[in-house]
Specification:
Elements (H helix, E strand, L loop, with lengths): L2 H8 L18 H6 L38 E7 L11 H5 L11 E6 L14 H13 L4 E6 L7 H8 L1 H8 L3 E3 L5 E5 L9 E5 H4 L3 E5 L1 E5 L3 E3 L11 H4 L4 H6 L1 H12 L1 E13 L7 E3 L3 E5 L2 H11 L8 H9 L8 E5 L2 H4 L9 E3 L5 E3 L12
Helix pairs in contact: 4-6, 10-12
């Protein structure tokens, strides 16, 4: 079988569009209306609106809610003024308060965000954060540590590893980097079923690790509004099966695909690089922001909700975060226990992509360019 034939055989997920743009189950609707005065504006809520690239589901069943974390979620905001200051931070002490899964003797995958490289823009999880995470896992007794990603745009992984410095970092630390775009593939059932995919073609490094840690770069996103630890999981599946930039996922709907992947990939912790973040027309064409913090925690929904609030974006304005509150974990402030810094100590208003605009009362209206929805990137 030729490489092209193999890609064609693997790269045929089972269906395409969920095709709905209604809201989630009404049980939590009161919360969504009340929290910070923030609601999703049309086209997401209007049944008569233009096609929604998010494809929000009509209903979340009790069966689909079974994965949701019930207990309060600890999240740490750790101030770090620059990447040069990161080695001085005791991340082991930080994570000891965060219910991090036991990694002793385990195989750990640090799933970074390495979408592309531009010297003037923070597109990628910084090498200093990667190094800190590797050292943390070693301190905690991990038996095997792997760094990996499936770039959504640039297919030249050797170039990306050299340009970002992550390749040199991995070599120095003696840990492998796995290109998840070309890894061996296992079929993983789409247990959540928000999209109509019956299974995901998932890299074996993902399916066989004991703990997947999502390590995103905090950025605004021209279609998803915010990309963080949950959206970072688009890079946990291979481009050779789903196209570049993971086209099948965008066709099936960004929000439901994010949640389906979060349940299929089973991430157990997040370390978010927000030392330098991105605002504006991200995730590629935005502007660097010297924000100066990391966000860590075992509940990716809670980590991302805190990340949103540090950008002064209510999580309820982010479509996949609305579903995450139903199926993944905690996004409401009263269910999140913050350690280290407060949100107020680091928060600043991020400029939004051109496809969104702020209104009064922290309401964000969505103005999607439908023609661009199939060509978005992670």
């Amino acid at each position: 079988m030729t490489e092209e034939e193999e890609e064609e055989e693997i790269g045929q997920p089972t269906d395409t569009i969920n095709g709905s743009n209604d809201v989630v189950d009404p049980e939590r609707r009161q919360f969504l209306k009340a929290a910070a005065g923030a609601v999703l504006a049309p086209p997401l809520l209007s049944a008569c609106a233009a096609p929604d690239p998010m494809h929000m589901p009509r209903h979340i069943s009790e069966e689909q809610r079974r994965w949701r974390r019930k207990a309060p979620s600890p999240v740490a905001i750790v101030k770090c003024a620059s990447y040069a200051d990161l080695p001085a931070i005791d991340l082991e002490a930080v994570t000891s308060k965060l219910q991090i899964p036991d990694v002793k003797g385990k195989k750990i995958l640090l799933k970074i965000n390495m979408v592309d490289f531009r010297s003037d823009r923070p597109l990628t999880t910084d090498k200093a954060v990667v190094e800190a995470a590797v050292k943390l896992m070693a301190q905690l007794g991990a038996a095997e540590i792997i760094v990996g990603d499936a770039s959504a745009l640039n297919r030249d992984t050797d170039y990306l590893l050299e340009a970002t410095g992550i390749g040199q970092c991995c070599s120095k630390l003696g840990v492998p980097f796995v290109d998840l775009n070309i890894d061996d593939i296992d079929k993983v059932e789409n247990a959540a079923g928000l999209t109509k995919e019956k299974f995901f073609a998932m890299p074996r490094t993902v399916t066989q690790c004991d703990l997947l840690i999502s390590m995103p770069k905090l950025k605004t996103h021209r279609l998803a509004l915010v990309t963080a630890s949950l959206k970072n999981l688009f890079g946990a599946i291979p481009g050779r099966a789903y196209g570049w930039p993971k086209n099948f996922l965008h066709v099936n709907g960004i929000a439901p695909s994010v949640i389906d992947l979060a349940i299929a990939a089973k991430p157990g912790f997040a370390i978010m690089d927000a030392i330098v973040a991105m605002e504006g027309h991200g995730p590629l064409d935005g502007t660097p922001v010297n924000t100066g913090y990391l966000i860590l925690g075992p509940d990716l929904a809670a980590v991302d909700a805190v990340g949103c609030r540090t950008m002064k974006i209510a999580p309820e304005n982010v479509a996949y975060m609305r579903i995450a509150e139903e199926m993944i974990g905690n996004t409401r402030p009263e269910k999140i226990t913050l350690t280290a810094e407060s949100i107020e100590a680091v928060a600043r208003e991020f400029k939004l992509p051109a496809s969104f605009k702020r209104e009064q009362g922290n309401k964000i209206e969505v103005e999607f360019d439908e023609k661009s929805s199939a060509s978005s990137v992670t």
